[in-house]
Amino acid sequence: MTKNIKVNLRKKTIDGFFWSFFDNVGTVGGQFVIGIILARLLTPADFGMIGMLTIFIAIGQSLMNSGFAQALIQKKDSDHIDFSTVFYFNVFSSIIIWLVIWLCSPFIAVFYNQPQLGLLAKVLCFSFVIDSFGWIQQIHLNKAIEFKAQSIIGVVSVLVGGSIGIYLAVSGYGVWTLVIQTLIRTTIKVLLLWKVNSWRPTLVFSFSSLKKLFNYGSKILIGGLIATIFNNIYLLVIGRLFNAQSLGYYTRATQFKDLPVNTINSIVQKVTYPVFAKIQDDDIKLKSGFRKVSRTLVSISLPLMVILYLIADPLIRIMLTEKWIPAVPYLQMLSTFGWIHVLQTTNITIFTVKGRSDYYLNFQLVEKIIITLAIVVTYRYGIEAMIWGQMVTTILSYLLSSYFMRKVIDIKFKTQITNILPFLLSALIMLAVTLFITRNIKSDIINIITTCTFGSAVYLLFLWIQRVDEVIFVINYLTKLMKK
User: Residue 104, SS3?
Assistant: First the structure.
């Protein structure tokens, strides 16, 4: 019986990785491609206007979640009453949040000195209400480690919403293109979630259930809310102190950096959280899983960040045209430390899986104090100085999360670094060698192709020289496959 459960969990995990990969490649990749097309049709200021509202959208989504997503997945015996209760609570909360933003919209416009932002905020944030109707449907599928339907839904909603967005941009709708596109994409996603998932809420609401879930989720909510605010605090500060165009350059650079990191991170975290939740009482298995997840994330995200650093200039010139060139130095700086986020996220996942929401909250509080100090010190010296401040806070935050990791499942910082050291060394060699080879290439396209192919070859070669297990396994597998 136990063996069958293990086999089933392994199969679900593998299927989950496959469909989560499909979801992220299709959804995130689709959004990225559509975003490039829209960036060529719209102006940096249009994207900057939406960037000014990003922090309010993120806060609203964090409040709507209220930590219940993690609580429902982490709770082993969550039942229909739990899900129905949270469903109604989320819908009610989303309406309240939307009304609050509606009332605050004039102040948002005054804060940024952008009169148009008031109406944009009212319309764009209605997506909270729409999204709330599909939130529990998605959690229900996540808990069951069922990602196939979600993957297809994500791709369909992005393609339909993006196609309509491109039509609106060509038709001259400007910044409203981005607003309408978001509403359409969210609506399609919710409708399809209800179509494919058989779960339905019933007329039941339990304050007892809500209280139990909130006891765990409240710390996640507070920590997540703090994280959300400070993850977007740079958008707020840059939008307030500089202008919409400068913020547009920064947001586009951030999106380029986030594409590989967040895609990989989301694929792994989306699957591993419910899987880790099922083995939360077995520290030996958790340590083994943590080691594998960390190595997987770093082995892919690190070389991608190196490549992104090397091709930032030709990539933006070709994909976004010359009007976006001021975003190049921002992208290069962000790429130098973007990969560290995946390690920090993995550490935090272990906190929550083990039910240590108190550690999660403490981590968020200390980290945000560090971020605040960095902003206070750097904002007067410009956007580039602020990004260097981000790098310092990212490193310190990872060290802080590693401290808590040792308290949760006794994994030392030294052990974490040793675990990923082969990939760090190979990436550094890859950077030096590729930079030397491509330094005199004038053609943008040839530069990109050479950097990607040659850089990847150097990276894999030095991993093979170090006899890294994962690389040896892949080589042996491919060799056997070719022989057959």
Answer: helix
* Sequence-ordered alpha helix ranges (H) in 113-147: 117-124, 127-143
The distance from CA 75 to its chain's CA centroid, rounded to whole angstroms, is 24
| Rounded distance between C-alpha atoms, residue 123 and residue 173, angstroms | 15
Cα distance between residue 193 and residue 305, in whole Å: 34
Tens of pLDDT along 405-452? 888 787 888 888 888 899 999 999 999 999 988 888 888 899 999 999
- Residue 281 burial (10 A CB sphere; 0-12, 13-18, 19+): exposed
Task: Please answer whether residues 283 and 409 qualify as being in contact, where contact means their C-beta atoms are separated by less than 8 angstroms.
Answer: yes
| End-to-end alpha carbon distance in the chain | 35
pLDDT digits (tens, 9 = 90+) for 332-376: 999 998 888 888 888 887 777 777 777 777 887 888 889 889 999
Domain enclosing residue 92, as ranges: 19-231
Separation of CA 476 from chain center: 33
Domain count, the chain: 1
**Alpha-carbon torsion angle 14, 20, 22, 23, nearest 10:** 160
| Number of Cβ within a 10 Å radius of residue 264 | 21
Best-predicted range by mean pLDDT among 8-22, 151-165, 461-475? Answer: 151-165
- Predicted TM-score of the model (pTM): 0.71
Residue 306 within a domain:
no
Q: Which residues contact 100 (CB under 8 A, 6 or more apart)?
A: none
Confidence of residue 2 (pLDDT cuts 50, 70, 90): very low
Residue 50: burial class (beta carbons within 10 Å; 0-12, 13-18, 19+): buried
Please give the Cα distance from 131 to 115 (Å, whole number): 27
Whether 138 is covered by a domain: the verdict is yes
* Distance, C-alpha 461 to centroid of its chain: 30
Alpha-carbon Rg for the chain, nearest whole angstrom, is: 23
Tell me whether residue 332 is in a domain: no
- DSSP 3-state of 355: coil
Q: 107, 81 in Cβ contact below 8 A?
A: no
CA dihedral 162, 147, 90, 231 (to 10 degrees): -70
Nearest to 355 by CA among 276, 422, 415: 276
Count the neighbouring beta carbons within 10 Å of the beta carbon of residue 207: 9
Distance of CA 331 to CAs 28, 249, 368, 387, 441, Å?
18, 9, 23, 10, 20
In whole angstroms, give the CA distance from residue 463 to residue 466.
5
Label residue 1 by pLDDT band (50, 70, 90): very low
> Going by C-beta distance under 8 Å and a sequence separation of 6 or more, which residues neighbour residue 389?
374, 375, 377, 378
Instruction: Please report whether residue 425 resides in a domain.
Output: no
